[in-house]
Design goal:
The protein is of the alpha+beta class. Helix content is 33%, strand content 35%. It has two helices and five strands, in the order αβββαββ.
């Protein structure tokens, strides 16, 4: 089952990436991971680096996918952003960054810009 869950997660991240591209973003990377941090989709929206967390639920029996982006998850995405910027020789204080969430409930996609 984990393999199917991972494949489904990848499919939903690709769906989110296509949505962002349609909005004019340039996708830089999917699944940026370090030992302590992760970002599902990293894109460039104009001159802003956008770190997007993607959450999927087939229904609301476990709550809405937006509710799953708790403080701990936000911290991991922020850490991933710092690692990514450092890896690419970008100075955090001099780089425009934003944290978005894309929630997918069944096939309905909700994009929250500046989510945290």
């Amino acid at each position: 089952m984990p393999e199917n869950k991972r494949a489904l997660g990848g499919e939903k991240e690709q769906m989110a990436g296509a949505f962002l591209e349609a909005k004019g973003h340039r996708i830089l990377e999917y699944n940026f991971r370090t030992r302590m941090a992760e970002a599902d989709v990293i894109s460039l929206d104009g001159d802003t680096y956008v770190f997007t967390e993607v959450k999927y639920r087939k229904d609301t029996s476990q709550g809405h996918p937006l509710e799953a982006v708790n403080k701990a998850k936000q911290r991991k995405v922020r850490m991933a952003a710092l690692y990514y910027l450092e890896d690419h020789d970008l100075v955090p204080d001099l780089t425009n960054i934003r944290f978005d969430v894309i929630a997918i409930l069944d096939e309905e996609l909700t994009h929250v810009e500046n989510a945290f």
